[in-house]
Design a protein that fits this description.
single chain, 46 strands
Length: 722
């Protein structure tokens, strides 16, 4: 009997161990799948599919974010074919992998692919969890022993369902394009442009959410390596994409030097922005808040005091004449505006250049001559006003064909100067050809690489000449988000393709301009078109477009502008309200919305006239009331909140909307839904909060706000401090 027990007990123990193993494998159903999870999300990797991510579930809601029929589901390598430079990239993914192994090492899942079909390319992917974090952290490395250089690495590659819940109208893509936008029902939209970081991608994350939960994908990269965000639609799937852009090198090893993170969240775009902000505010570009930067003398105080940024073309209308030199009218026009708003004016002097608008870098002498121009800028400053001009940044004009209906100019051919000073510094594309922008058909411009001497000739030197003319603020216009096309030249001293060289070259160029300018005048300021997180420390202010709906950079079907960059970074860098927010002598729903949006999002007031002749005293009464109220708040109790405050997440108001037209430069106007009430809440470091509410309608509006019914008259602004 004892002998029998000695034989049976080990069998029972073995059976129990086997049952335990089977139970453990069954928990990962199917039994070959490997699971990695946080408190909020569960990710499953399938060894039978070479480590493909076959499931990503939000644990609280049960929402599945992976459509397993799609592919690739782990990574996609994009390879450049040197023999056919104009061809689409060669693509390899885990579906092409050979001899892949998938293993779990503690809280890390490791996928190793030694080679691919017909390609001597190896890949290793690592996914891990971190204590106290709801995110999953991922890295990828590639050993490319082929003659085809890597041109892009999409990782992690996720295929999502085309619809998350019962209705696609509840689905939204959070997209950090410039100031920020949402795209409603994104899988149904034909065109959503790719955005490059740094550049039109002002931050490094993308998110997709529905009624119950959302998926968040970001890189935690403090060095600004080149990357691209976008979307792809393939059969039954919708794919938010993150593509890492490596240096273009054959037979080379490449690895991501930063973490890519993914996870799930609950709420709207603000919840995704808060996830990103929890990392972003600890990065080098947030070393000092705006309040600290002003105290340190890093940013001039005048930029954060009440001032109207007025867009005014020096070549413009006067009476029945067009294209008149209006330089002699500047100071008197400023005084007309000061009577209306009781505040200084920062004159944004457009079409000031020698040859006309955005023709650079041959800018000088300016319109009217240096002496007359300098008298105007000094006259503005003597009365507490300021001046600002745009430079075409790293664009070098080749030719300009004048429009006789609007420009009293001659055709200009600047190619000889370009060939002498700019051609050697021109960005080269993947095909080895110079990068020439032709979206302005009458004005082809070469894109200049920021690492070259031509970049200093195009931007640094003109900025210093502008300072000699008494200009207080120079804007690097056209340098959207601090980005330029990727350069593949082998002669410019940088590695061809991606890396950190591009961002650092632009950063250092802007830094040099600021340092040189401030050494001569502590009130000198540098601005840039559209925001960039990486460029925050080398800017004094940026050109914002939170007020725009329906057109660039919020163009595209179902695009909805939201103050995404403002939500994350408002307390670190000021912004002014753009160059196309307008007021009129007649009623305008667009004007009310645009002025109101600049107000509630904490932007320095901006109004655009451009070439039109306008008497500020004729401003339509409701628009005038809104604008005056804007300045009253800036001079009064809301000032420190709107300048130094942090945007607080708030639900949308249950207030009526209206249909209005949005002007689109390249096509017919769009009809869009627009709110009648705008509101935001701001919090100061000491915990005080304040809410700003504005009626941007030509009729009184009643609505519920925090359990109380409020009624605002047309153009009325209400400030509620707590």
């Amino acid at each position: 009997m004892k002998a029998s027990l000695r034989l049976v007990l080990p069998l029972i123990t073995l059976w129990a161990l086997c049952f335990s193993c089977v139970k453990s494998l069954a928990a990962d159903s199917p039994d070959s799948v490997i699971t990695l999870e946080t408190d909020t999300a569960r990710v499953r990797f399938d060894p039978a599919k070479n480590g493909a991510i076959v499931s990503l579930v939000d644990k609280a809601s049960g929402q599945e974010f992976v459509e397993a029929k799609g592919g690739p589901l782990l990574y996609e390598l994009q390879l450049f074919d040197p023999a056919n430079p104009m061809a689409d990239p060669i693509r390899l993914s885990e579906t092409d992998a050979l001899d892949a192994t998938v293993a779990k090492e503690g809280q890390t899942v490791v996928v190793k692919v030694p080679r691919h079909k017909n390609s001597p390319i190896g890949v290793e992917c690592r996914f891990r969890t971190e204590p106290g974090s709801s995110l999953i952290y991922a890295r990828i490395s590639v050993d490319n022993q082929s003659d085809s250089p890597l041109s892009g690495v999409q990782f992690p590659a996720l295929s999502c369902p085309r619809q998350l819940g019962n209705s696609a109208e509840d689905d939204f893509l959070v997209y950090p394009r410039c100031d920020g936008q949402l795209v409603q029902s994104p899988a149904s939209v034909e065109w959503i442009p790719d955005i490059q970081y740094p550049g039109t991608a002002s931050m490094q994350f993308i998110a997709l959410y529905g009624k119950d939960a959302g998926i968040y994908l970001a890189t935690q990269d403090s060095e600004a390596y080149t990357k691209r965000f976008g979307v792809e639609k393939r059969r039954e799937t919708f794919r938010p994409t993150l593509t890492h852009i490596p240096p273009l090198q054959a037979r080379a090893q490449w690895k991501a030097e930063y973490d890519t993170v993914l996870g799930t969240f609950h709420g709207d775009w603000q919840a995704a922005a808060d996830l990103y902000k929890s990392w972003a505010v600890h990065q080098p570009w947030c070393r000092h808040t705006l309040k600290e930067r002003i105290a340190l003398g890093d940013i001039p105080r005048w930029l954060t005091e009440p001032s109207l940024f007025l867009t005014y073309s020096l070549r413009g209308d006067q009476g029945k004449e067009k294209g008149v030199n209006r330089l002699p009218l500047v100071e008197s026009h400023v005084e007309d505006w000061r009577k209306q708003i009781n505040a200084p004016v920062t004159m944004m002097l457009m079409s000031w250049e020698k040859w006309g608008s955005w023709i650079g870098p041959d800018y000088f002498p300016p319109l009217g001559g240096e002496e007359a121009f300098r008298q105007v800028t000094s006259g503005l400053r003597e009365k507490g006003n300021h001046s600002l001009v745009f430079l075409s940044s790293l664009h070098w004009t080749l030719r300009k064909k004048a429009n006789p209906d609007s420009e009293p100019l001659k055709d200009v051919d600047l190619t000889a100067d370009y060939e002498k000073r700019g051609a050697a510094g021109t960005i080269l594309g993947l095909d080895g050809k110079p990068s020439i922008s032709t979206h302005l058909a009458s004005q082809p411009r070469a894109n200049i690489c920021p690492t070259t001497p031509a970049a200093r000739a195009a931007l640094f030197d003109p900025a210093m000449e502008c300072q000699k003319l008494g200009i207080d603020c120079v804007q690097a216009d056209g340098l959207v988000g601090g980005g330029v096309p990727i350069c593949y030249s082998k002669e410019h001293g940088h590695t061809p393709g991606g890396g950190t060289w591009m961002a650092k070259a632009v950063h250092d160029l802007l830094d040099d301009i600021r340092k040189a300018g401030k050494a001569k005048n502590s009130d000198f300021a540098l601005s840039m078109e559209e925001p960039s997180e990486f460029m925050i420390p080398v800017l004094d202010i940026y050109h914002a477009r939170d007020y725009i709906q329906g057109r660039w950079p919020r163009d595209g079907d179902k695009a909805i502008g939201v103050p995404l960059f403002t939500h994350v970074y408002h307390e670190f860098l000021p912004a002014y309200g753009g160059d196309s927010c307008q007021v009129w002598p007649w009623k305008s729903a667009s004007a009310l919305y645009e002025v109101g949006m600049n107000l509630v999002t904490g932007k320095v007031p901006g109004i655009a006239e451009w070439v039109r002749e306008f008497n500020p005293a004729t401003t339509e009464p409701i628009q005038s009331r809104l604008l005056r109220g804007y300045f009253d708040l800036w001079r009064g109790p809301a000032h420190e909140f709107l300048i130094f405050g942090q945007r607080v997440t708030e639900p949308s108001l249950n207030a009526p909307t209206i249909t209005r037209k949005a002007f689109v430069k390249s096509g017919p106007s769009k009809e869009i839904q627009s709110p009648t009430i705008l509101h935001e809440t701001w919090r100061l470091p000491d915990g005080r909060t304040g809410s700003i509410i504005a009626c941007v309608h030509d009729e009184a509006i009643s609505f519920d706000y925090q359990g109380k019914v409020l009624t605002l008259q047309p153009g009325e602004i209400k400030w509620i401090a707590r």
